[in-house]
Amino acid sequence: MTEKTAVTPAGHTTPPARFSHGVRKGNILQTAGQVGFLPAQEGEPPVVAGPGLREQTLRTFANVLAVLEAGGASWEDVVMLRVYLTDTGHFAEFNEVYDAYFADLKGVPAARTTVYVGLPAGLLVEIDALAVLD
Q1: What is residue 31's predicted lDDT score, i.e. its pLDDT?
Q2: How many CA within 13 A on the CB side of residue 43?
Q3: Residue 126 near residue 35 (C-beta atoms within 8 A)
Q4: How far apart, in Å, are the Cα atoms of 54 and each of 1, 34, 92, 97?
Q5: Are 18 and 6 in contact (CB under 8 A)?
């Protein structure tokens, strides 16, 4: 049986509870939900990338990608993205950012977007990814 391996990229904040930023088991890599925090600074609280959805979404994509790469994956390996927005009014703007970000991706993943109001104050988006590696 293949062991589970925790994946924590450099620059990520320490999770607030007992979980990993990502877990790889065999050829499966699941990221935990990532948000738009800038790279962690030792001894400092997390800082949000910006007040707007665009800035937070791009930073969240960068944070998801960091976990994927630390686990040996890329966006091309992602088969599912789950997106959580805090406001239904953000769907159109999010889709614009999403389409531009993934414009060159060969095989787009399945995606699910839902509205979730449980993110900490100031955070507008959370994304997790499921990747299958060859």
Answers
A1: 98
A2: 0
A3: yes
A4: 42, 15, 11, 7
A5: no
Largest interatomic CA distance in the chain: 45
∠ CA 6-17-34, rounded to 5°? 65
- 14-61 pLDDT, tens per residue? 777 888 999 999 999 999 999 999 998 888 889 999 999 999 999 999
The pLDDT confidence band at residue 1, using thresholds 50, 70 and 90, is confident
Contacts of 101 (CB under 8 A, 6+ apart): 57, 58, 61
DSSP string, 1-51: -PPEEEE--TTPPPPSSS--SEEEETTEEEEPPB--BPPP-TTS---BS-S
